[in-house]
């Protein structure tokens, strides 16, 4: 019995003991220090941009509350068309004079007009240009009058224009567009802005004047469309 017990003292008959596992670290994106740094930078840039947008928006809103800017208003109050006819060689002979009123309704903003160019257009064909290079300043809540005159002759080869002209000739009222191209600067207190180039379109219906009297109808004051950012 003692021999059997001594034989069993060094043996182990239980379950096998698994070997110790070695720690293994897989290098992935989550542990990339460069990726973490880039994420922090992008987050910081985004926060700075959003802060700047909020500050600019708030400043613009405060400026609007103080100044309350309004658009400059343009009206054609009178139009005198004493000649408007085609000759046999598709030459348009014309004589058109306008009274154009410019109203500044703002209480705290003045306007410098550095240049005014007016183009007369008939059926999408420009036939005359008037340019005023005499600058002037328009104060608060004031009205100025500009008198563009279009006189001369212009060859218009498009036969579609002539056919449309014949239809309007029967009524004695002609649909003429006048487009204004401006160079202006605005003044608020001692602050002067850079140059803006607003464009104005006046769609006119002008009766022909013959022997000092209107042939048919009378001209009605026409409000012009103002666009500071888009072409008209």
Describe the structure.
The strands form 3 sheets. Strands 3, 4, 5, 8, 9, 10 and 14 form a 7-stranded antiparallel β-sheet that branches. The chain has 3 helices and 14 strands. It starts with a helix and ends in a 5-residue tail after the last strand. The chain is α+β, with helices and mostly antiparallel strands. The chain folds into 2 domains: 32 residues; 155 residues, Sandwich (Immunoglobulin-like), CATH 2.60.40. It is elongated. The model has no long low-confidence stretch (mean pLDDT 83).
What's the structural blueprint in terms of helices and strands?
Layout: H1 2-8, H2 33-67, E1 73-86, E2 91-104, E3 110-122, E4 125-132, E5 136-138, E6 142-146, E7 149-155, H3 159-171, E8 173-188, E9 191-192, E10 199-207, E11 209-210, E12 213-214, E13 222-223, E14 225-227
């Amino acid at each position: 019995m003692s021999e059997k017990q001594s034989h069993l003292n060094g043996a182990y008959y239980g379950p096998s003991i698994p070997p110790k596992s070695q720690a293994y670290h897989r290098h992935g994106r989550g542990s990339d220090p460069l990726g973490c740094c880039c994420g922090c930078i992008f987050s910081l840039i985004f926060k700075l941009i959003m802060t700047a947008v909020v500050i600019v928006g708030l400043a613009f809103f405060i400026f609007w509350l103080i100044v309350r800017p309004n658009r400059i208003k343009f009206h054609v109050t009178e139009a005198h068309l004493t000649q408007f006819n085609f000759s046999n060689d598709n030459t348009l002979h014309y004589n058109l004079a306008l009274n154009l009123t410019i109203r500044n309704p703002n209480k705290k903003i003045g306007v410098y007009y550095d240049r005014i160019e007016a183009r007369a257009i008939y059926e999408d064909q420009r036939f005359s240009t008037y340019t005023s290079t005499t600058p002037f300043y328009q104060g608060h809540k004031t009205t100025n009058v500009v008198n563009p005159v279009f006189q001369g002759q212009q060859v218009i080869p498009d036969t579609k224009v002539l056919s449309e002209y014949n239809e309007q000739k029967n009524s004695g009222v002609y649909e003429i567009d006048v487009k204004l191209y401006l160079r202006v600067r605005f003044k608020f207190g001692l602050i002067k802005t850079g140059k803006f180039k607003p464009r104005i379109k006046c769609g006119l219906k002008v009766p022909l004047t013959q022997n000092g009297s209107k042939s048919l109808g009378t001209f009605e004051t026409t409000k012009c469309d103002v666009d500071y950012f888009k072409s008209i």
